Amino acid sequence: YAECHAEGKCPFNQPSIHRLSPCVDGKSAGEYDCRNIDMLSYTSLRDMGSTGDGNDIWGWTDEPAPGVLREYALVGMADGTAFVHITDPTEPEVIGMLPTHTSSSSWRDIKVYKNHAYIVSEASGHGMQVFNLLRLRNPPAPGQGVHRYEADAHYSMVGNTHNIAINEDTGFAYLVGSTRSGSGYQVCSGGLHIVDISEPLEPKFSTCYGGDGYTHDVQCVVYHGPDTRYSGHEICFAYNENTLTVVDVTNKNDIVMLSRTPYLDVSYSHQGWLTEDHAYAILNDELDEMYTSEKRTRSLLWDVKNLEAPVHYSSFLSTERSVDHNLYIRCVL
């Protein structure tokens, strides 16, 4: 990181490339390492309106007319969130950016519910921004630089927040990793700060759960897996620094921790995702490649068919020696 800044080669400084750049002899566009993947385009942070670094990304698919789909990238940056139209991936179009609510931060996260983006950040006092993504259907006139939007609503019962998850089936948002106290804040011991977003522009505090302390990331689902005791329940799989913690949040007035499971060679339980049948989870530990003897990228495989007793039964070791951060699953394994 320090070297790329010193050499002026970080993504902020590199010029955008809006063309197909095939992977040839291990390089795309002459300088980007690749293997079996062609670069369709590259848009720099500068061209997205940022003066800092990037941090996270999410997506939104609009359907302005039946059968007409338009895809957008929602890009978290140190100083805000960019909205990029990517339906034609070789010609991405930066529509604009929403500046941070307070100050810049290395951490920002975005999720979507009912065509609205919900944005949190570790920036002090940031809270949660709400942005109506349908506004992107009418982009500003070109030639005025990157357009700067304003949020449509703001939720202020948290200050800093590390991450956000949304269960689109229930209309609840789960803000996690809030640690700084302040007037009117509900930090929830850094655990689940639960918000009712069934009315997208009117987020309302629901309840807290901090029974296992700080949560770094979480996935909450309406459960349809093998453990029939909990069929139809709303279950959260929380990645809590040193455990996989499973919580039943169906009754917001009586939240129950079903299990709290540590694992061998834990360094930092960072994030994970369920298979689509809810029978297995894959967890990534962000720091094990740095602080344990195994330097290859490790993905931890969990059998979660018994929600009260998950089992870390195996690990996949990549040939690469790299730190893993986030993962997602789009099919049944």
Using only C-alpha atoms, the radius of gyration works out to 20 Å
Shape category? globular
Largest sheet, strands/sense/barrel: 4 strands, antiparallel
Mean model confidence by pLDDT: 94
End-to-end CA span = 35 Å
Strand order of the largest sheet: 4-5-6-7
SSE-based structural type: mainly beta
- The portion of residues forming beta strands comes to 35-45%
What string gives the helices and strands in order?
A: HEEEEEEEEEEEEEEEEEEEEEHEE
Helix content: under 10%
* Low-pLDDT regions: none
Number of helices: 2
Keywords for this structure?
single chain; four-stranded antiparallel sheet; 333 residues; mainly beta; 3% helix
Describe the model:
By secondary structure, the protein is mainly β. It is 3% helix and 39% strand. The protein is built from two helices and 23 strands. It has helices at 2-6, 288-291, and strands at residues 23-24, 27-28, 32-33, 54-65, 68-77, 80-85, 93-99, 108-113, 116-121, 128-132, 153-155, 163-167, 172-176, 192-196, 204-209, 217-222, 234-239, 244-248, 256-261, 269-274, 280-285, 298-303, 311-317.
Sum this structure up briefly.
The protein has 333 residues and is mostly beta strands. It has two helices and 23 strands.
Secondary structure blueprint with pairings:
Layout: H1 2-6, E1 23-24, E2 27-28, E3 32-33, E4 54-65, E5 68-77, E6 80-85, E7 93-99, E8 108-113, E9 116-121, E10 128-132, E11 153-155, E12 163-167, E13 172-176, E14 192-196, E15 204-209, E16 217-222, E17 234-239, E18 244-248, E19 256-261, E20 269-274, E21 280-285, H2 288-291, E22 298-303, E23 311-317
Antiparallel strand pairs: 1-2, 2-3, 4-5, 5-6, 6-7, 8-9, 9-10, 10-11, 12-13, 13-14, 14-15, 16-17, 17-18, 18-19, 20-21, 21-22, 22-23
